[in-house]
């Protein structure tokens, strides 16, 4: 796993949580080959649980990239969390206070500088009763079209069993199975030279969310098939 660029507190958080993941989670990761080894890239995940971020960071590290998390700015003002977020060079977004393009400017600059940026396009946990992804927000599209870096769709499944929504402590036993699967980058090249209208952003967002949903469908279908066999 890469260590350079993680920062002291972010690296410490990883080192503390890694044994927990190894001991209490049966983690299966696929699709790492779709993550470029260098240069800017967006990893776009579905959102089921507060455990998603841990699984997403593990996926990025196993793909040999140190991720920078795009997250609400209030985390930077919290004890301990603030140290970790600043140390890791993560990217705060002040929601509802500035224009979307200005709020995402640090993320676009980081991508142009070669960063690996993690994002949950839904912006919150899905409210779908069967845990399928909701309609995404346009931030991921804006970042992708302004920076012109690959967007890798990644689906997570099982995190909702490890740490159900509304719970503070994870359910460590029995050992939970979590799958994280990435697909090929979403093709947005035909949108690069178009004006960033609401329609263009909506189309790019739709493609990203469709790709994530396809990856999640593959995980869930395979699990259903193995259970019925």
UniProtKB/TrEMBL annotation:
Boundaries of every Phospholipid/glycerol acyltransferase domain copy: 41-159
Coiled-coil spans in chain: none
TM segment ranges: 7-29, 41-62
Any one GO molecular-function label of the UniProt entry: 1-acylglycerol-3-phosphate O-acyltransferase activity
SMART domains named in the record: PlsC
Keyword check for Membrane: yes
A GO BP entry: phosphatidic acid biosynthetic process
CDD domains linked: LPLAT_AGPAT-like
Keyword annotations: Acyltransferase, Membrane, Transferase, Transmembrane, Transmembrane helix
Protein name as catalogued: 1-acyl-sn-glycerol-3-phosphate acyltransferases
